[in-house]
Amino acid sequence: MKKTILIVSALIISYTGISQEDVLTKNKWPIEKAKEWYSQQKWMTGANFNPSTAINQLEMWQASTFDAKTIDKELGFAEGIGFNTMRVYLHSLAYKADPTGFKQRMDTYLKIASNHGIKTIFVFFDDVWGKTPKIGKQPDPVPGTHNSGWVQDPGDPASKEKENFPALEVYVKDILKTFGNDDRIVMWDLYNEPGNTGKLTSSMPLLKSVFIWAREINPNQPLTAGLWAWDFQELNAFQALNSDILTYHNYEDEKHHQHVINLLKSHGRPMVCTEYMARTNNSRFSNILPILHRENIGAINWGLVAGRSNTKYAWNTPIEDGGEPIEWFHEVFRKDGTPYRQDEADLIKKLNEVANK
């Protein structure tokens, strides 16, 4: 660990007269503060939420396709089984097109979620799937193909081009200034899966920058960036050492998931699993959710209602005619609110009732 800290520290250079190391550490939560904060939260359970009518983050947040009615209906399904937390991706292009309207739509979403007893983890940047996001009308889903229209934020090579950083800094800081004291928001997830889609350590400059920007604003809510690829040593060290609450992704079975938990406990910080549950990978509610409940680790699965994202289909096994998969990969509900599996819905509801007595 000492060697890792030295490696990370060596990468940190001067920033506007104050060292980046000083900026990063000044407002980072001590372990004791993180534990105290976590002890005051309900056990976090919920889903990564995109309304079924949106193929991606842009379709969710753009004015022409923002669907408050569907958001309200589908968060009602979540409330019905005791979910209390949603992880929701933002997008910088939707902000750039209409900063005031974007923030108003965020507030509308938060009002709806709060009415259902649900708090939100907002995600800023993302290295997964489509490399060239474009504002405006989004494409229709490719039949039977997982996340065929999901887009990175800000994109590739956009995330590597430092001339884009000033505008991204304005975006991040404006959102954090606006909502940094909002108790409807439980956490800020600054960067989803940095290094994915072949980017590797080229994502480090933006990852470090977004932490610096966020620490400069110092919102009331904790900051995090989830670990997800265990061979990404440099990125993992930075993410783990700079997160107030440790978050991670795991789509493997109970043996492998427990192994990851045991390793991450060494950091001594509260943990939230912000992505899990891929049935055909044997990451299921039945074998993973009880572990997370027992370990008091927040449990945020991928997907709530089957829709335009097509994430009921597995990552690399498209069904070209768009037919029903033998077993859904992600998602909890059909569009009419019927659970995909009633036994799963019953388990989720039961564990939430036990945890929040």
TrEMBL record:
UniProt keyword annotation of Hydrolase present: yes
Annotated ranges, domain Glycoside hydrolase family: 77-303
Listed GO MF terms: hydrolase activity, hydrolyzing O-glycosyl compounds
UniProt protein name: Cellulase (Glycosyl hydrolase family 5)
Transmembrane segments: none
Region annotation (Disordered) ranges: 135-158
Family named by the database record: Belongs to the glycosyl hydrolase 5 (cellulase A) family.
One Pfam family in the UniProt entry: Cellulase
Secretion signal span: none
Keywords in alphabetical order: Glycosidase, Hydrolase
Source superkingdom: Bacteria
SUPFAM superfamilies recorded: (Trans)glycosidases (SSF51445)
A biological-process GO annotation: polysaccharide catabolic process
Gene3D superfamilies (alphabetical): Glycosidases (3.20.20.80)
